Task: inverse folding
């Protein structure tokens, strides 16, 4: 009985300690972010999309395998820059037949246009932890200007891999017809809402160009 009680108390203490450790490592004030060069951490970065399906339901899916770089300067947000790439064949829904269709020629044409890319051209801080990131989105072989609404979530040393990580939540609404994807409009909405959970790991203090050549 004593052994069981000690085990229970130890388990409770251990479970309570993890949030305390995590919160001690994470800052939520964007002015405290470490400046520097970051890379996307793909295991915890994902992009969700949603469309209105035949006026009945909001249908959602995911993209993964994101790669990219972030040059971040919290003291001069306008000097920051972002460039990311997404393999469109990573599209995931709850319907396997639909996933095959979405990769096909009438939708994403993943074989012909394997990547979607966003490259920022300007950053404008709109609040302590919020910014508008304007840039060019290339999808389905067409480039169109779009804007990300970005909210800083937190930054600190990841307690598992010991790497300094910064995280953001971002949203963007696009019209797929702007990119030549017009299948089933208006029955499936032209507007597509994107939401990005973005994690970035800080790299060594060398230039992005030299990092890209590695």
Result:
């Amino acid at each position: 009985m004593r052994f069981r009680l000690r085990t229970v108390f130890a388990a409770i203490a251990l479970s309570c300690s993890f949030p305390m450790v995590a919160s001690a490592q994470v800052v939520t004030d964007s002015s405290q972010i470490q400046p520097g060069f970051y890379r996307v951490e793909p295991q915890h970065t994902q992009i969700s999309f949603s469309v209105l399906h035949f006026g009945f339901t909001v249908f959602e899916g995911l993209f993964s395998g994101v790669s990219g770089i972030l040059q971040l300067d919290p003291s001069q947000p306008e000097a920051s820059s972002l460039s990311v790439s997404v393999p469109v064949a990573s599209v995931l829904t709850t319907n396997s037949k639909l996933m095959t269709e979405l990769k096909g020629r009438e939708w994403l044409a993943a074989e012909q246009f394997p990547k979607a890319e966003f490259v920022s051209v300007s950053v404008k801080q709109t609040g302590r932890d919020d910014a508008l990131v304007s840039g060019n989105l290339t999808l389905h072989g067409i480039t169109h200007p779009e804007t990300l609404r970005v909210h800083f979530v937190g930054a600190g040393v990841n307690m598992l891999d010991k790497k300094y990580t910064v995280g953001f939540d971002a949203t963007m609404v696009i019209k797929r017809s702007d990119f030549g994807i017009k299948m089933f409009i208006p029955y499936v909405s032209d507007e597509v809402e994107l939401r990005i959970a973005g994690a970035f790991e800080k790299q060594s203090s060398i230039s992005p160009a030299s990092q890209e050549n590695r």
User: Anything to note?
Assistant: The chain has one domain: 28-212. The chain has three helices and eleven strands.
